[in-house]
Design brief:
By secondary structure, this protein is α+β, with helices and mostly antiparallel strands. The chain has 2 domains: about 5-65; about 70-125. The chain has 3 helices and 8 strands; from the N terminus they run ββββββααββα. β1 and β2 form a beta hairpin. The chain is elongated and about 45 Å long. The N and C termini lie far apart (about 50 Å). The mean pLDDT is about 95.
Amino acid sequence: MYALKRFDININFPEDGLTVSCEVEDLGNSKFRLLEHPIFATQVKYGDIILANFESKEKLKFQKVIEASEFEMLDFLLSKEICESEKFKELLNTMTENDIFWQQDFGGLFCFFVKPNQVQKTKQLILSIN
């Protein structure tokens, strides 16, 4: 249906009673990789490959996770002062350079998606920002 392999689309999660906009990669055969974390969706996370059908040109209907992402999600609610600090901005740059995907929502809600062997180190780095 789409010529682009990567695009933003609304995804309906019927079990959560939720529709969320999310960037996806079309893998063909109704399979999509989530390139963002659909905030508030309880059944999926960044990096998952899902099965979904088009409800319309602008909306997918989630069916199930076909392949779960290897990443673990760490989420933090941070103050405005921390979010705007140079030390925290440097930390985000370092994470990006080290291929750690992070997402900021609603100002101070940060989600970090790390490999299992990076969990403790990443937690320590984030908690050290004060």
